[in-house]
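Hey,
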Amino acid sequence: MESYKELVNTLKSTTLLLDLERRSQLYQDITSICDYLANPRFQIAVFGPFNYGKSTLLNAILGNRTLPIDLIPTTGAAITVKYGTDVRTRIMFADGTEIYRSGTEVLQQFAVLDGNRRMRTDVISVEVFCPHPFLETGVELVDLPGTNDQEAQDNLVRDHLIRADLVVQLLDARKLMTLGERENLRDWLLDRGIKTVIFVANFINLLEPEEQKQVQKRLRFVAESFRSQLPPGFSNLYRVDALPALRARLKGDVAAANSSGLVAFETAVQNIVGIWQQNHGGVSSPRVQVITNQIQASLVNKIFAVSSQIKSFDEKQKAKVEINQKAVSLIKKGFNTSISNLRDWLALPKLLAKYQGDAAVALAENNFTSWQTASLKKDLKELQTAVVKWLYQAYNFFAEQRPEDLLIPLPQEPQLTLPPMPNPNNDLHETGAIAVGSGIGWLLGGPLGAAVVGSISYLLNKNIQQQDEKLVQESYHQQVAKICIAAAESYLTSLSSQGLSNVFDYEQKAARVIHFGVSEPAEISQLREDIKRLQLGFNQLLQVLIRANIPTKYQPYREIPKPAEKVELPPPPPYGEVPKPPPPPNPTELEAKFRNWELDEEIAQMKAKMALPTLGQKEKIARAYNVLGLKPNASLAEVKQAYRTLVKKWHPDLYINQPYKEQLAQEKMRLVNAAYKLLCNDLNG
């Protein structure tokens, strides 16, 4: 078993990946198979319903009454019989304590069912040590509880069967292979890769000679139907009359032991064990393959489920990114247009062309503040609002960074310094300049003020730079006009310079607002990590199975690409498609099957098998009506309608993945078809 250590460790780690419930059947099977692989012992388990004589058979093999037997269901634990120099019993309890006593009397207290026919929940293992030469070879015998009483016993038996190298299924010759036994044979053994099975028929000695012959035929049919994986030359069916065999052993009656069938059975088992102990892998491989196939299928299912979640998120994220990219493009376009309009408005030549004259006039009319609010500030605010609204739209859409308002403060209102005002009589004059802070209309007033405003308009419409030095000698109002014009130019120059600088800074900040980050929720990031771990675990298990020579139908996963690469998630391995339940039968296809049912060759063969040669024609017809659920003398139309109803109810395709129900449906349809054909022929005849 040294070669299986790696496999056992890998199976345990894979169980953690699957996060299986401890009560789930797969978890229990993995635990059992790991225990089976980790121990070099060779176990022979005897199982069957209560009162089939399991303990009696084992006692006969051991040659004494080692195990408790009675007329009522007795064994309430899995009792493992091992080699020991003397007969001793060890009971292990769930709390870690144990009892280790001489003899087996303690079994009556801890290894039998209580008054309510239930097992003790505090006992986790029962071992009996016995000085028997067969056990000395490393073989262990396991006496399992009966299987037709309590669910807890059934679960215990099911878990132990997978650990047994050889399973002895005890049959009662008086009621061969009940429905429950057939189900156990299929669900507990066949479907789990346990095919190292020997059938032992008990109680044949209680039948009449003629009955024994009939039972022997049925037994052979059972044995031939189940393809046991035994070494060549060995039968999978033996007759052992357990109680006579035990009595013969206790008396030392060799002849009686031979006639009971015990010796032939023991010889076969010992030879089989001797062969298998040389090649134990041949026994373990099939059941390990079944369990690992289930594990791999569960991993593939989980990987598929997780990858589907990731794929769904990636698809939504991709759509979101595309929408955001379009939004970024539109918002940037609108923002750039608005910022361009603002920058164009702030360009000094255009500011001067549009506002210098009005600004100079407003200064001359002592109305600069009102003009600034009603005209310049209003226009600037509209342009600023047009710019900022795009950033707020970006924030509302992307919620990346809250935008700041675009601040372009207006320069301080111009302060004018006027030259000395001339005196018409040459008597009134100023030795210095007059400082005017809030306009000059109040000072110049009347015709002189109007003359200044007129000069502003005149001078702005002429190229001031081309004026010669004679302007100095020109009228006073022309000089004042030049001062107003120059002050307006200085004011607008300051607005242009400061405004363009603020716009440049604002553009840098805007880039952080008109932006979206492709963030990923923490749960999706966790799913990506989960799928990597699942795929890594799947691939590691696959490699270990290959090294252990355990067949597998799967291929390794490739690494999942990162979402940024925009590559589709890899499909499940080519030879390991995700197991999915088949779709329900298409109603149209099912109707076609109904119409062609009579033409189906397989059904025709079923009809032939359902012939009733021992009944007379009247009895056959009466039985046919009964099978279809009709009263005698029903019409042909009623027969056809009843047939159609039953086919819809019992069509085998309706029970795919339910082997037992599918088998029942097939058997039901054999009867239905035979009855339908018989009645159709009779009513049409």
